[in-house]
Amino acid sequence: MKIKQLITIFIVILITGCDIFKSAEDLYSEAEAKRNIGDSKEALVTLKKITNKFSDHEKASKAQYLIAEIYYRDLRDFSKAINEYGRLRQKYPGSSQVPFSLFMQGFIYANMLSNFEKARNHYEEFLNKFSNHELAQSVKFELKYLGIEIQEIPELKHLIK
Fold first, then answer.
1. Number of other CB atoms surrounding residue 112 within 10 Å
2. Count of alpha carbons within 13 Å of 64, Cβ hemisphere only?
3. Is 60 helix (H, G, I), strand (E, B) or coil?
4. According to DSSP H, which parts of 18-147 are helical?
5. Which of 42, 80, 102, 137 is most buried (most C-beta within 10 Å)?
6. Secondary structure tally for the chain: helices H, strands E
């Protein structure tokens, strides 16, 4: 009889320790915690669980955006970041993160990859779709000085010594 009880307890512990019963919010918090301690790759694994298992949940688009941000900021994999921002735009077209994703794609092309043609395309698409967005002025600034070195931009000369 004790063996059956031990087996039952073991199975319950095993199941509750898995992600099976975790909500999208739980997984998102777990991913943020992993990222905060510098474990970006494990954070990505957890975030991808959200986008796969809870694709219709409001946290899914936030998880997708955070995936892109991790590739950009933490892992410095700019091509992958651009793809992940694009995935957000494709999978979650109604998300409030879409304008930020489009901006970031243009920003990475311009400032990290020096692909000014693709940057211009993304920035112009941004202005066509989101002309009243809070980032519109930043996009206009980026377009105005696209391809120009920072020391040549009058508004930024004070930042250069």
1. 15
2. 28
3. helix
4. 24-36, 40-53, 58-69, 78-91, 98-111, 116-129, 136-144
5. 102
6. 8, 0
What predicted TM-score, i.e. pTM, was given to this entire model? 0.84
* 161 residues of the chain, pLDDT tens digit each: 577 665 655 554 444 455 677 999 999 999 999 999 999 999 999 999 999 999 999 999 999 999 999 999 999 999 999 999 999 999 999 999 999 999 999 999 999 999 999 999 999 999 999 999 999 999 999 999 999 888 888 887 777 76
First vs last C-alpha separation in the chain: 78
CA dist 83 and 75 (Å) reads 14
Question: CA-to-CA distance for 135 and 147, rounded, in angstroms?
Answer: 19
The residue written with tokens 């000369």 in the block is 157
Closest C-alpha to 130, from 158, 89, 161: 89
Retrieve residue 48's tokens.
């991808």
* Structure-block tokens of residue 36: 């905060």
